[in-house]
Amino acid sequence: MRSIEVSGKQIELDEDGYMTNLGEWSKDVAEFLAKEDSLVLTEAHWEVINFLRSYYEQYQIAPMIKILVKEIKKTMGADKGNTKYLYQLFPDGPAKQACRYAGLPKPTGCV
Amino acid sequence: MADKEAQTVTAGAAATTDNDKIQAMLKYDKIDYQTVELTGEIILPTEPVDKCFAHIKPQLLTDKKLLANLGYPTDGLVDNWKEVFLRKMDEMLKKYKSVRVFMDICVKCGACADKCPYYIGTGDANNMPMARQELMRKVYRRYFTVPGQLFGNWMVKGEELSLELLNMWYTYFYQCSECRRCSVFCPYGIDTAEVTMAAREILNSVGLVQKYLHQIINNAQTMGNNLGMQKNAVINALEFVESDLQEETGIDNIRIPIDEEGAEILFVTPSADFFASPHIESLYGYAKVFHQAGISWTMSTYASEGGNFGLFIHNYEHMKKINKRIWQAAKDLKVKRVVGGECGHMWRILSSYSNTMWGPFDWLDQRYPIPEHICEFTLNLLKRGALKIDKSANDEFIVTMHDSCQIARGMEMGGTEYGQFEIPRAVIRYVCDKFQDMPEDTIRERTFCCGAGQGLLGDDMLPTRVKGAIPRMQAYTAAKQAHGVNFIALICAICKAQLSKMFPTYGYPMEEVGGIHQLVGRAIVLGAKEGV
Predict the structure, then answer these.
(1) Contact A55, A63 (CB under 8 A)
(2) What's the predicted TM-score (pTM) here?
(3) According to the model, what pLDDT value does residue A15 have?
(4) Which of B213, B231, B467, B495 sits CB 3.0–4.6 Å from B450 for a disulfide?
């Protein structure tokens, strides 16, 4: 457990760096977490993060990677609609790293 | 000066409870993992080191609501923990006769010592199976044998309960994946897994509950699957796969049926199969097999999980509750058969435990195995010529097979001796031209764990996972060097998750890891119905 200060607000993170209170998420939090990994969030990153958040709102879980890939293909073009591209954007894995920036809980299970 | 020091110590001690002390001892630190060079050779430790891996511990579960749901203490270590510990251990020894026998019969011959993947990987003496068992055995000798009770430790080489002992238990019973490899080599058949399972449940009873594993047990009990997907998420995922399959194959009646009453078969599989990669590729394979076989089948949103982590902690209540969903769904949907997908311990529980928990299953069609493994199901179709196969679809692969421990050292498959080894390999050979086994002492009943079984798959256990995977990674490397192997086929969701993470960690592409039905799915020629 640790907390970070973003825009004057204390945000609590769990041992793995995921937010414990999802309601506290803001774009600044995402930027802050990415910066810690020396990552600059581009428009492409935001496409992924925004999609994750809207999917989560409806289903209370992150989408499976294939659904994400298909969505990215739809919005960003066929050349970007593949797992490899997502790993380029999020080197620690889109499922975990992107979820963390998007303020989603870590998926758990045999995954 | 001395007085002042003494005062400080006393004041400190008064303010510190056993719970505070154990929480400090078990505090989770994120520690970097270390790989080794892959040479293709499994090198056994020459000099075991005491406690060199003692700093690696999984995170504790602290969510009070979740702990209460599971029936465990909610505020960490309970005040009267020694009493609770011994009462629970007594219960375990009475309930599981095997555990009591295992406490009594070890002769310390050492045959198990270098058989554990975690010992080989870490070189920590406490990871030798007999040393791991000894953590419980010395408590057993002290408190549960007459000489120990009458004369104490000096007589029986026992050990008093202490916080340090709890620390050792929590550390080393979570560096065991209950893979049971050591039991194959023990002349008495002592199964360390049974000891570990009992130890974990004793730790739970005093309030030291591991996070990853128990979060999942809670998900499975409350949501019906390990991932904690609610019904609309399961439906969305399965509908997506169905439409993707139809798009990919151009066949509009290939389906992933959901909750369809009256289907012939209820199919249960790990929720990872409709969430994670490479797991999901096998789901495409299963659907193609069912489609081509022309047999009606359904998945269930109520029993949306094949796995059952209740086994990992010797807690029948949890295990039974999770397992019941499958048989309840089978009854509610009025199916005739139950088929299980690619999941290691699911198969062990379904085939070895279900019947005594919720059987007899005389209301299912007795002409078919209850339950039936998907490999068995597919192989029967292949043998009958009911599936048209184009092996060239898998020409790019030289395939090997990793025997998952819960299947390899479970009971059986297909009602034939060694079916659990032969049936999956036979399926692979039907759909791939090139198959090569890894070295003999790393497969079949002597298979090595992937390094993350039975509750060790959390990211907090990465240092242990990376070490525990070493024997498997070396064996794969040996097969690669000798035969150019470039694909490892599996039938377990945990193994798939672990190896697809370990492969890139050790410098191999993660695409070299996948399910057997991923290969089947690629090779099936849809539409043709010759020989049915």
Answers:
(1) yes
(2) 0.94
(3) 83
(4) B495
For residue B487, the 8-state DSSP code is E
Residue type, A54: S
B489 bridge partner residues: B401, B514
In the listed set B209, B242, B276, which residue is the last one of a domain according to the structure?
Answer: B209
In tens, the pLDDT along A33-44 reads 999 999 999 999
Which chain A positions have a beta carbon within 8 Å of B215's beta carbon?
108
Q: Spell B83-94 as b/e; 16+ CB within 10 A means b.
A: ebbbebbeebbe
Residues in chain A: 111
Residue type, B15: A
Residue ranges making up the domain that contains B400: 218-436+485-523
> What pLDDT, on the 0 to 100 scale, is given for residue A2?
86
Q: Along chain A (111 residues), what's the average pLDDT of each consecutive run of 10 residues?
A: 90 91 94 95 95 95 92 91 91 89 90 85
Q: Which of A21, A61, A99, A110 is most worth mutating to test chain B (most B CB atoms within 10 A of its CB)?
A: A110
Which CATH number, 1.25.40.10, 1.10.10.370, 1.10.3720.10, 3.20.20.70, labels domain A2-101?
Answer: 1.10.10.370
pLDDT of A1: 76
Place of tokens 């969305």: B236
pLDDT band at B416 (very low <50, low <70, confident <90, very high): confident
- Residue identified by tokens 């109520």 is B302
DSSP state at residue B341 = -
Q: With an 8 Å Cβ cutoff, are A15 and B30 in contact?
A: yes
Minimum Cα–Cα distance from B278: chain A residue: A111
Going from N- to C-terminal start, the domains of chain A cover 2-101
* Domain assignment present for B335: yes
Active-site annotation of A, residues: 110
Residue B126 forms part of a structural domain:
yes
Question: Quick one: B223 and B195 in the same domain?
Answer: no
Q: Are B255 and B298 in contact (CB under 8 A)?
A: no
**What distance in Å separates the CA atoms of residue B354 and residue B341, rounded to the nearest whole number?**
16
